[in-house]
Input
Amino acid sequence: MLQGKSIIVGITGSVAAYKTLDLVKRLRNEGASVSVIMTASAQRFITPLSMQIASQGTIYNDMFEHPLSHVSLPAAADLFIISPASANIIGKYANAIADDMLSTTLLAYSGTVILAPAMNWRMYENPILRKQLDYLISLGIKTVGPEKGSLACGEEGIGRMADTGAIMESVYTVMTPQDLNSERVLITAGPTREHLDPVRFISNRSSGKMGYALARNAKVRGADVTLISGPVSLDAPYGVEMVRVETASEMHEAVLEKASTSSILVMCAAVSDFAPEKVETHKIEKTESMTLNLRKNPDILSAVAKLQKKPFTVGFSAESGNRIDRARQKMESKHADMIVFNDILKKDAGFDSDANEVTILDRKGEKTLPRMSKDDVAAEIFDRVVELKKI
Ligand code: CTP
Output
């Protein structure tokens, strides 16, 4: 997502400085080139050598060793992150003080800045610091964290630097056009489980990766996102409201509760079509053969499409073979506005994979995409939703 972007990472004096090693590595993994500026205090917590290895670039810590870098670095940068941002740098920045390499470069920069504050709670709650921070925010400076928890000094309170995942999410958000910022997006992901007895259930194959990628993408584009998830082993995306469910009827109830206040619904979950008629309270004992009586589960997508105040609805259609016709039929019969088809027989795409190969179908046409990451598929799906909602 950050291919070709140039990012300055400023590090100030805080015990959280070591976390920035990971941040720099992740920025580089996403394709960004990273220039690191360390204050004198930062170098007491983490060595320039460690940062040099992580960033694979020059470490700037002395104005006079790199004359004019305080002008050339900001001129070429797409983003400036201060991680950790001490009370000292916040105070200096808010007062236009430029007395070292970092504060001088920051003052010479006019693009997007993200601050990740980190300090003791007494400093963070000091009204003087808060006033300076609020002033910076009023000028459009972005902040991420700090979080509440146990602080390095052993005290509990607010002041712990946001973790790398949260800082990365705010990086994606500021680098992405906010074209979903007036949307309330409801997404389902993962499988459902239909219990037979206390230890057994019927389920569908689904890792949840596609649905979680959709939730992340909608979030970084500014949407208010709710993710209704069946049982999966994935971390909740940052800033997304999570609703965890197990059965199809729990998912049905959760979706219907939110659907009429949502503007977009993406039914990415692999919902079990059937559930056992009866759930035994004791473990079923083995017999030579057994017959399971199943009842049909409600079709969630169709139920939402019947609502009077219905969101823009997107379904998924996983088929064996190139059954685009069947996917289109599903879009019609379920009254969906769009359906995303994939062929489950294709190798290395779909189930459990980080990649997918899909065709996006809607009432105005269809677009077959090459194999790409699920994050990119998610971006393509919302690009098309945005396009269609404009028509
Ligand atoms: N879906 C749903 N409720 C169900 C079953 C499916 O909302 N009870 C949604 C899925 O989340 C998906 C779309 O409907 O977005 C298509 O799902 P799929 O399982 O392919 O469709 P089915 O109608 O179950 O058809 P079949 O199993 O016969 O292929």
About this structure: The two ends are 27 Å apart (CA to CA). The domain at 6-174 is CATH 3.40.50.1950 (Rossmann fold).
